[in-house]
TrEMBL record:
SMART domains: HATPase_c, HisKA
Chief localisation class: membrane
Keywords of this entry: Kinase, Membrane, Phosphoprotein, Transferase, Transmembrane, Transmembrane helix
Domain Histidine kinase: 225-437
Name listed for the protein in its UniProt record: histidine kinase
Species for this entry: Nibribacter ruber
PANTHER family with a match to the protein in the record: SENSOR HISTIDINE KINASE TRCS (PTHR45436:SF5), SENSOR HISTIDINE KINASE YKOH (PTHR45436)
GO molecular function, one term: phosphorelay sensor kinase activity
CDD domains reported for this sequence: HisKA
Residue ranges of the TM segments: 7-30, 143-162
InterPro entries listed in its UniProt record: HATPase_C_sf (IPR036890), HATPase_dom (IPR003594), His_kinase_dom (IPR005467), HisK_dim/P_dom (IPR003661), HisK_dim/P_sf (IPR036097), Sig_transdc_His_kin-like_C (IPR004358), TCS_sensor_his_kinase (IPR050428)
Pfam families in the record: HATPase_c (PF02518), HisKA (PF00512)
EC number: 2.7.13.3
């Protein structure tokens, strides 16, 4: 999973957890807030009542001959009552109590307060229906829940946007690395960011890839130089042995040994020439300045190899219904690439087997496949068939384990995608994907 996705999931999950905790605690919190607001309102009304009594006098509310005063609103949601009480009886504070109003019992949030006026003591009670407080509490809960959900959603989207902007340099680094098909094609780039960690990572990758490129370059130069230098003494030795074979004075017993030595030198020379070819291709010493017809290329390879297929009793079938032209290519290298694949298909086929060369135009380009009915390649060996000097087929006198590495090198040189499928005992298929114009 990508880092940005992990950050986004963590951010969303943490906010959901926080939201659930707040939702669980919301009723209690809102109820407390609603009760607190109700108590504050009762206290404010208490001050107003005291002010009215001070301005108008207690007689306005409790005339002579009466001992109490009561005022209820129409829906019994609030009331105010005044009554004369005996001295020494004190009821102060706010609590929840039941009151019977017009034959109906109603639960109120009740403020009780006693005060002395003249020679008398009075009890002031101001009440508000708890049902009204509960309705206000539910309204507050609904608005608070909507607000919390909106805040969480907004913060999640903000976090997503910020993490995308924050991790953009890392995404850029990854995409650059994904476009690198080979270490030698890597080009160092600067990074426009203020995050020191990403700058350090980018500089480290640039330095590391530079070292890898330098090591690859040294290896290429070494292989090329050594291969070139070895060809001269091998050619001299080969000429000397051939002269000894042609010399009539050479003893009969030595002739067989000389032939074996020449065969060994020939194998060694083939290996060196293959290494030299790979080195030159990797160092881009070949030009891609020819227009190559795949149909003509297939025909040339088949003309060259038909006799060998007949000797091995292998049938060669060609199906290239529509031609495809490579505008910038190297005819000789492409011939070597296709020839090596078809030659392997003959070499590791079964007597009476078949090799099918099939071309097919597709939306993404052109596909040319070489399929055989040979011995196939085991699943564990398949990932290593392009490794140099590794062999997984039965040894013979012509193959030196470099045919397929050459094929891969030439394909890479022409930006050709190569796919291999094989099943042991049933055959192998090599497919070359040519990019469309």
């Amino acid at each position: 999973m990508r880092l940005q996705s992990k950050l986004a999931l963590f951010s969303a999950a943490s906010k959901v957890v926080i939201l659930l905790v707040l939702i669980a605690a919301l009723p209690t919190l809102v109820n407390k807030v609603a009760l607190h607001n109700a108590d504050v309102r009762l206290q404010q009304k208490e001050e107003i009542v005291y002010q009215l009594i001070g301005d108008r006098g207690i007689e306005t509310y409790i005339p002579e001959g009466t001992t109490s005063y009561g005022s209820y609103n129409l829906l019994k949601e609030e009331f105010v009552s005044l009554e004369e009480v005996k001295s020494g009886k004190v009821n102060n504070g706010i609590s929840t109590a039941l009151r019977k109003v017009e034959g109906e019992v109603v639960e109120y949030r009740l403020l009780s307060s006693t005060f002395d006026l003249g020679q008398k003591r009075y009890l002031l009670e101001i009440g508000r229906s708890t049902e009204t407080i509960g309705e206000n509490s539910q309204t507050l809960q609904s608005y608070a829940l909507i607000f919390l959900v909106a805040v969480v959603l907004i913060t999640v989207f903000v976090d997503l946007a910020y993490s995308k902007v924050l991790l953009k340099p890392l995404t850029l680094i990854v995409r650059r690395l994904q476009r690198v098909e080979h270490p030698t094609t890597f080009k160092p780039h600067g990074l426009n960011t203020s995050t020191d960690d990403f700058l350090y990572l980018n500089n480290t990758i640039n330095d590391m890839m530079g070292q890898i490129q330098e090591a690859f370059q040294k290896e290429k130069e070494f292989i090329g130089n050594v291969s070139h230098e070895l060809l001269t003494p091998i050619s001299i030795m080969q000429n000397r042995l051939e002269n000894l074979l042609a010399d009539p004075e050479t003893p009969e017993a030595m002739l067989e040994k000389l032939v074996d030595n020449l065969r060994t030198l020939h194998r060694l020379k083939s290996i060196i020439q293959a290494l030299l070819l790979i080195s030159r291709i990797e160092n881009e010493q070949y030009l891609k300045d020819e227009s190559v017809s795949l149909e003509s290329l297939v025909r040339e390879v088949c003309d060259e190899i038909t006799e060998r297929a007949e000797v091995r009793e292998v049938n060669l079938e060609v199906h290239v219904p529509k031609d495809f032209i490579l505008p910038q290519a190297n005819q000789s290298l492409l011939f070597t690439m296709l020839f090596n694949v078809v030659n392997n298909a003959i070499k590791y086929n079964k007597p009476g087997g078949t090799i099918t060369i099939r071309g097919e135009e597709k939306p993404e380009g052109y596909t040319l496949c070489v399929a055989d009915t040979g011995v196939g390649i085991s699943e564990e060996a398949l990932p290593f068939i392009f490794s140099r000097f590794k062999r997984f087929h039965a040894p013979d006198g012509e193959s030196h384990g470099l045919g397929l590495p050459i094929v891969q090198t030439i394909a890479g040189f022409h930006d050709i995608t190569l796919h291999v499928q094989s099943k042991l005992g049933e055959g192998t298929s090599f497919c070359f994907q040519f990019k469309g114009a």
